[in-house]
Structures are given as C-alpha cells and as structure tokens.
Amino acid sequence: MEREKAEQRIAELSALLEQYNHEYYVMDAPSVDDYTYDTLMRELRALEEQYPEFLSPQSPSQRVGGMASNDFQKVSHAVQMQSLQDVFDFEQVAAFVTRCHEEFPDAVFSVEPKIDGLSVSLEYRDGKLERGSTRGDGFTGEDVTANLKTIRSIPLTLRENVPFVEARGEVYMPREQFFELVRQQEEADEQPFKNPRNAAAGSLRQKHSAVTAKRKLDIFIFNLQQCEGREFTAHDETLQFLEDAGFRVVPSRSICKNTQEILTAIKAIGNSRNDLPYDIDGVVIKVNDLSQRDAMGATSKTPKWAIAYKFPPEEKETVLREIEVNVGRTGAMTPVAVFDTILLAGTSVSRAVLHNQDFISEKDIRIGDTIVVRKAGDIIPEVLRSVSHAEGAQPYRLPECCPVCGERAVRDEEESVLRCPNISCPAQLHKQLVHFASRDAMNIDGLGPAIVTALIDAELIHDAADLYALEKEQLLTLEGFKEKSAENLLKAIAATKNAPLDRVIFALGIRNIGQKAASLLCAHFGSLEAIEQAERSQIAEIEGFGEIMADNLYTALHDSHVRELLERLKAAGLAMTYEKMEVAENTFFSGKTCVLTGTLSNMKRSEAKKAIEAAGGKVSGSVSKKTDFVIAGEDAGSKLTKAQELGITILSEAELIAKLGQKA
C-alpha cells in the first residue's frame, strides 16, 4: 500500500474504531460484533507497524479500553486494569507459548474461559467491601459500589480477614435472565439490549440500584490485583485464596505445560460453550508463576505474560426452505429466510431477516439453497452466503404485489425497500393501531397491543376510525373485559376527540413524519384543510422539512384510503384543530437550541420539549457546535458525552425547571 493511501486508511480506521469504542464503552450499544471490531483493529495495528510515522498516541490501538462515564464518581485504579492481547488462531497461541518458553523454559500456564461481560474491581479493607468500580480506560473507572452490592454472589464480608484485598472479576447476565429482560423490553415497546454483555454493562450502570437488582446479574472473579498481609507465588494459588475467602472464582480452569495441552483445554472449553448458562467469548492463557510475570512485564496496554484466544463467530450450514414476506406498519415488505433449525450460540435458530431484494440478489439466495448462517454478536441470526443451489432452483424475486392485500407494491429507491401503499392493508393494521393509540400519538390509555389484537380478531375494528364507534356491550364480549375496564377504555377513546391536529397527523403513521414534523406542519399551515391543499413544494419549504418528507406527506394525504380515514375521523367527532403555541419573549431559552437526553423524573420528554419551545427555545435531536444547552436526565449517554467534549453547558432537570420562564 502506498504511503498516502496508508495514511488515509489509518485515519479512517482510527475514526471508525473510536466510534465503535464509544458505542461499546459509553453507550452500551455496540453496532458491530466483536469479530468485525477485532478485524479492523488488526488491520490498523498492521498498518501502524508498517508505517510507524503515522502512529499517533491517540490511536485506538494505544488505548486499553473505553472511557469513564461522567454519570458516576471517578475511581483511579492503583493497579492498572489492563486488557489482554487478542489472538485468533492456534498458530498465534503456539507463538505465544514459544516466546514465554524462550524466556522461562519451565513456565506453565493457567487456562481459563473468558467470561463475556463487564470487568470490575472489588476492594476490601479489613475484610469488608469498601468500593467497587468499573475498568473504564484501565486507569480510571466509575464507582458502582451500590449496584455491585445487589449481586448476591459478591461477598460483603470476606471469610478471611486481611488488611486489604483488591480482586478483579467479570460481571455478566445469565442467558435465561437476558432473554426474559428482552421479552419485557419488547412488551414495553423499548429498544431491547443486543446481547447479554451489553445488557450487563447497561444494568450495572443504572442510577438506581433497585433497577440493577431486578436484572439479576452475576460475577466470576478471575484475578487478584492487590493483597496486603499475604504472599503468593502463583496465579492458581491466588485463585484458591479468593475462593476460600468467599468469591465465586472463574470455573473450568486448568494448568497446562505446553502448546498441545493448552490447545486441548481450549477445545474442551469451546465444546462446552453452548451448554453453559452464560456467555464466554474465548479462552485466557496466563503464565502461572507470578515472579515470571513480573520479569516478563507489560506494554503500555497489555501484559506480555497473557493472551486471550477469541472464538470466531459460529457458522453453520442449513437448508433454506422458504422465504416469507412480512409487511410492517409503514408497508415495508421484509423477506425472512425460513430454514432447517440449527443450534447457534446455544439457542435454536430457524429464521433470519434477508433485508431486501438487493441483499438477496447480491448473495444469489434461492429457495432450496444450502446457506451459511451465523449470529451477529452471538444474538442476531444472519445469512452470510449461499453455498450451493438446489437442482432447478431459480433466482428469487420479491412479489410484485402485497402478499396480504394484493395491492401492487412500490419500490422505495432511498431504502431499496418494497412497500405496500395500502394503508388499510390488514398486515399493517395491528401495528398502525398500536401506534395510533401510543402515548405520543393519541395517548389512548388501556389500548395496548393485546387489546388491539383482541379487537381485530373479533372483527370489531378495521381501522382507527372504528375505535370511536365501539360500544360497551361489544367490549364485554371480549375476554378480560368487565364493566369498569370497558367503561375506562371508552372514556379514554372519547377523550382523544379533542386531541390537537399535530397529534392526529403523527398518529396516522406517515413515513418520516414524526412528532416534530407534525407540529411544524400544523404551525405553518394552521388547519387540515390548508395542509391538504398545499403543494409538495410548499410543504418542502417548511424549516426542518425536505423533499422526501414533503413527498411522503403529500402522497399519503392524497391517498384515497387516508382521505377516507380522515373523513371518518372527522365524522366521529375529532376536532382536528390546531392552536399555535404562544411563545414567551426574552426568556432564558429565547433563540437557544437545546438537546434532551436521558430520563427525566418530573416530566415527560415531550412535556419538557413543549415547555422549552413555549419559552422561545428550539429542541434538536442531536448535539452539535450550534447546541446551546444539553438537558441531561438519568442514564444520559452519548449526547451527554459529546456535549462535554464540545464544552456545551449541561443543565440538570432541576435547573431546566428553574430556568423555564426565567427572563434572559
């Protein structure tokens, strides 16, 4: 590679890896799996080794790990919590053993499963838990003592009373608990965690320890960082001490003398991987003798006496039997592969999303093919490739018409997606009605997904307008409804007849038209009639709109199904009026751009947004140099971090309330 291209590629990789570091360590929301991250890191390190003139102290390759969050008190680690050098094949394992034996021919190795979770430090003074903290960047972490105390396997008092002990462990979420948490998040219409490691990190960093306690985290201890009052010569001796003291120590460990024994141990751990109730992502190999470790030393990032062998993502072949086409709320027709059930990462898998026609065509996936499937991040199944076509298999094309209502599909060139344009399509109905009743739309209390399903199954509703014709006697025929619950639901539905026009438009579920867009639209035109009569170009001129949003809105409002629905909603008594919000002048927030992040305790985010706008401010969804204030609630994430990096003023919820209405 030429020097100029190498410099450019190093810059690209550094920026990308920093983004992934931020997502993983600060946001607890990784967008790529470990294997992808590790591959990019290896490429960066290879380029920096080949072109050392481009190696920067700020390179991701020079870091131990992530950054400490500002949500908790900082903790400086007296003993650096180092990360390990990752290796990805048995040749690299053998090379490590050879290097160690060149320096110490009698070296033996402790081989242990690498628990996939969040690394923490536990400090005990005079046998009592004094402080627990996260690793952070290896030098500085976060004090999460209260949350760690909710993990029952962490002893609050040691069985052996020594002046001071610091132990390092890995907090994790058992698989069974993870799947239950995801189920609860999906039922609550929340974004579910992607994997157990991600869930463990997010749970441990909760502001309220009661939330952490409900998550039922666990821990394995794998290293003694410091100890006063006792002397040790070997790693396995320290683990035995920790176990005797009351810690839950990493299991399935063994002492190995050479490469062959180590590889045998790695294979045995790998073979047991799917039977474990928790996730492991590799195997750790450490020199056992502590004096030999001291002599071997460490780089600025990793010890020279240990490595982590990382398991590659598990891939398996299976036969594609069918491609189902699911229709979503916005009409998106999503192909789903249905294949012979296989076991991946400990769970049975028989389905995977195929995204769109371009994805299918690029990989030439055909029904009857032998395909290769893996779990991205060990959680989300994905089809990697087709290995072979079945005899006579034909290239697959998505249907030209909606498989549910028969309406001719249209291709969304912006997203390479086929859509059913029929807003009355039964496949879209359930999701549309759930959205229509949601808190930020019409806010119909008591009309959740299960009730919507019951109403549809009983053929009591066919669109949103039918909600306003429901009668108590009809509801009483449904399972679970009594006099009071039926009356309450009807009252909640009737109360929405006075909902402002912007809520009604948002409730329609028009693509790209969210709450803010609906408010801007209504503030600009003032009435539904004016909006319906507006041209695309007039809509696109609204600040915050663009051609795509204008086109989606114009198309939807001129669709015969939508027009009929709006007419029926009017006939049902919906006011559909809009009163432009009176904006106070010369307030603290006049002309200021604010960003809301985290959970507010005393008001909903939507209420805070309206209050800021009423005070003359503007609420944006992203942080930039143009942002004046960031209002940070509990569990604030990347937006808070970016604001701190840019030096933007941070306001608490209490400060927001105090300054609303305050004069500039």
In the CATH scheme, what's the topology name of the largest domain?
A: D-amino Acid Aminotransferase, Chain A, domain 1
Number of domains: 5
The SS-based structural class is alpha+beta
- Sheet with most strands: 5 strands, mixed
Beta-strand share of residues: 15-25%
The count of strands amounts to 22
CATH architecture of the largest domain: 2-Layer Sandwich
Give the averaged pLDDT, no decimals: 88
Structure annotation, total helices: 24
CATH class of the largest domain: Alpha Beta
Could you explain the architecture of this structure?
It is a single chain. This protein has 664 residues and is α+β, with helices and mostly antiparallel strands. 36% of the residues lie in helices and 20% in strands. The protein has a 5-stranded mixed sheet with strand order 2-11-10-3-9. A 5-stranded antiparallel sheet has the order 14-13-12-15-16, with no helix packed on it. Helix 1 (3-26) packs antiparallel against helix 2 (34-50), helix 12 (426-437) packs across helix 13 and helix 16 (501-507) packs across helix 17. Mean pLDDT is 88; it is low at 64-70.
